Amino acid sequence: MLATAASSVRLSTAAAAAGAATPKLAFKPIGYLPPLAAAGGGPRPLSLSARPLYRQVPFSATRTVAPPSATADGARPVEAASATATAAPAETARRAKIGVYFATWWALNVIFNIYNKKVLNAFPYPWLTSTLSLAAGSAIMLASWATRIAEAPSTDLDFWKALSPVAIAHTIGHVAATVSMAKVAVSFTHIIKSGEPAFSVLVSRFFLGEHFPAPVYFSLLPIIGGCALAAVTELNFNMTGFMGAMISNLAFVFRNIFSKKGMKGKSVSGMNYYACLSMLSLLILLPFAFAMEGPKLWAAGWQNAVAEIGPNFVWWVAAQSVFYHLYNQVSYMSLDEISPLTFSVGNTMKRISVIVASIIIFHTPVQPINALGAAIAILGTFIYSQAKQ
């Protein structure tokens, strides 16, 4: 090896002595790789498509460097802080919008229940009362679409087919709840209706084969126990009113199941969805209302109510019809903004507000043991909404 190096030096010296103008040192670069042989045996020519082992970017004084997401001490750069500051007002506005939805939903529901009970006390015809509620909502939405206050939904035949079982269940639940309100106190109807989660779990378990964690099943115990205690201790208990609330619970459970299964992939807003649901339910309910009560009973009952109450009765009927649609419309609109868990909690709080308001306004006599049953049932509903999620 030393001999080879010495030979190389001697050859270089000889070349310089031969008359080269500038002496050059002959050396091999470290890491030199010989050229790869081409197919013909010769060296492979240089290709522009060859990818370099590295790329050196010349320094430029005007070149900018993107700031890191955070500095070494954890402080955010100016851009990130600005984005956070912009997002904060948007989140605050969203929370305020949800708060307005909830407050409006509860207020409209309380007003509806009060006027609905006043109408049923003077005009005990729940089939016509239910029909007028759906008719008012349908008229409001048709007028909104015609005047372009609200954008009309784009629907097809498949949409209405999928909506049909939902509308049937909605019609049954709506009429059954109105029948219950006509026979018993508003507070008692809503105490029994707070047992809807128990029906939801039982139907989903035995008819759909769904399984739930143990906390969900345990949360049904206070719901069932509270409803039973409130029913046993109700001073003005009526079996028709009790069964109406129970049938309403079962019907609304099937309404939710049909809605989840049949309306997947249907791009309709919550407001328009409920509008279409009201219109289809009205068409379903109308012939049954005529068959169950009929114009003769309605005319006689209307005259008696106007003679007893006066012109205010007409206002009561209009108010209960309009507010029924509005509170349901707001509740469906809120579903576009909040999670199902938040909606369940809001629905529980809504029942509390309706029960308390109706007891105060109608001076409903309540025994302590009855109030305890209502509190247990409502608490169980809240626990259920937490365990379900």
From TrEMBL:
Location in or out of the cell: Membrane
Protein name from the UniProt record: Sugar phosphate transporter domain-containing protein
Listed transmembrane segments: 98-115, 127-147, 212-233, 239-258, 270-289, 348-365
Domain called Sugar phosphate transporter: residue spans: 97-385
A Pfam family reported for this protein in Swiss-Prot or TrEMBL: TPT
Organism name: Zizania palustris (Northern wild rice)
Biological process (GO), any one: monocarboxylic acid transport
Broad class of where this protein is predominantly found: membrane
